[in-house]
Amino acid sequence: MKHVIALDVGGTAIKAALIGADNEPLHEARRPTRRDQGPEAVVAGILDFAAELREHGLRAYGEPAVAAGVAVPGLVDTATGTAVYAANLGWRDVPLRELLATRLSTGTGTSPAVPVAVGHDVRTGGLAEGRLGAGKGADRFLFVPLGTGIAGAIGIDGRIEEGAHGSAGEIGHVRVRTGPDAPPCGCGGRGCLEALASASAVGRAWAAASGEEDADAAGCAAAVEAGDPRARIVWQDAVEALADGLVMALTLLDPRTLIVGGGLAEAGETLFAPLRAAVAGRLTFQTSPHIVPATLGDTAGCLGAGLLAWDLLGPGPAGPAVPTQPTPLTEVSA
């Protein structure tokens, strides 16, 4: 049975799967990233895991994987398959495609080298949400996960736009607040969307407002639902900043569907109801997109890595799902 290897490398764990031509996982596994042992151990763990997955596929399905895809955090050069930089993993300029291709081709005799695709974790997850999840059928979409940070993936006709330098969609570093009170961002700027509306930013603001050091965004959402006025102020501040950033993106990109994911989106309508209203209140000539929650959760990275791998083999059952008809427009009510 034909299948591909998919790896989603995170800061604490590597999620992996063998994925068939119907984009369904045949086998799933997970293990620690081992970043506490240094960047060399992280890379070695990825290579070892991939080799074990290859052997499992050979035993279970009678043939090795035909391709592999891996999603990694940080700056990625997809053209060369190099993991350029990732602060949380401590690596720089890791030739991941070359290393994986060599490891997966070992012992294949005269078989051709195994093709390997390397992608940015958020854009890879966005690829899966666009083709298989909340954006399925939309010719244009924007995927924005709200987690520890904020990033974005721009979907166009079944593919993800990477930009000239591999950093398209970095909406988290759009400046939405100015002045001396604008909070600093990890990128070196101030007033960035990520510093105001990420799950970690909401958690910090709620900890300061509540006086509880271990307060987090989930706790803030629960307090909003319980009617806590302090939580409502923190939450609304984040929603207003998020709406400002999203309207900038909508004005530039005009997506048909806006997919919001990540930990903050788990608050459901506690987030989406005020966010839709805030976005609608800022629009003038722009057409409001469908604003919907992501549906694939933490499986998006693996599924997207599988799509990257299948795409290396050319068009086919698992190739880009380009819509033949645009999704009908429906105005989103506040």
Describe the structure.
The structure is a single chain. This protein is α/β, with parallel strands linked by helices and about 325 residues long. It folds into two domains: about 5-120 and about 300-310, ATPase, nucleotide binding domain (Nucleotidyltransferase, domain 5); about 135-295, ATPase, nucleotide binding domain (Nucleotidyltransferase, domain 5, 2-Layer Sandwich). About 35% of the residues lie in helices and about 20% in strands. The chain contains nine helices and 13 strands. It has helices at about 40-60, 95-105, 120-130, 195, 200-210, 215-225, 230-255, 270-280, 300-310; strands at about 5-10, 15-20, 25-30, 70, 75, 80-85, 90-95, 115-120, 140-145, 155, 160, 255-260, 290-295. Strands 3-2-1-4-8 form a five-stranded mixed sheet, with helices on both faces. Helix 3 (about 120-130) packs across helix 9 and helix 6 (about 215-225) packs across helix 7.
